[in-house]
Amino acid sequence: MLHEMSIGGMLFSPFVVLVPMAFILAASTRLVLHHFSLRRYIWKEAWFDVGIFVCYLAAIVYLFGD
């Protein structure tokens, strides 16, 4: 179970840490695909980027959740 983090008396959602981690992974995947010229095989690039981000976020929540 994910719990709130208390910083200076304020409660923050654990997504404050998890979402940037997923974004960095998705951005790095996008850069790797662009570097190897594999982006041309993706039909809808924006939907692919959103899907990759959601998959990474789900995996991170699964791994870091109790």
Write a structural description.
It is a single chain. 5% of the residues are buried. It is built from two helices and two strands; from the N terminus they run E-E-H-H. The chain has a two-stranded antiparallel ribbon. A hairpin with a 2-residue loop joins strand 1 and strand 2. Helix 1 packs across helix 2. The protein has helices at 15-35, 45-64; strands at residues 5-7, 10-12. It has 66 residues and is mainly α. The mean pLDDT is 92.
What order do the helices and strands come in, and which of them pair?
Layout: E1 5-7, E2 10-12, H1 15-35, H2 45-64
Antiparallel strand pairs: 1-2
What labels describe this entry?
2 strands; 9% strand; mainly alpha; two-stranded antiparallel ribbon; elongated; 2 helices; 66 residues
Principal-axes geometry comes out as elongated
Largest sheet: 2 strands, antiparallel
Q: How large is the radius of gyration?
A: 15 Å
Structural class: mainly alpha
The run of helices and strands is EEHH
Overall pLDDT score: 92
Helix content: 55-70%
Put simply, the count of helices is 2
Oligomer: single chain
Unreliable segments of 5+ consecutive residues: none
**Spatial strand arrangement across the major sheet:** 1-2
Number of strands: 2
Strand content: 5-15%
Distance between the termini: 5 Å
Short summary:
By secondary structure, this protein is mostly helical. It has helices at residues 15-35, 45-64; strands at 5-7, 10-12.
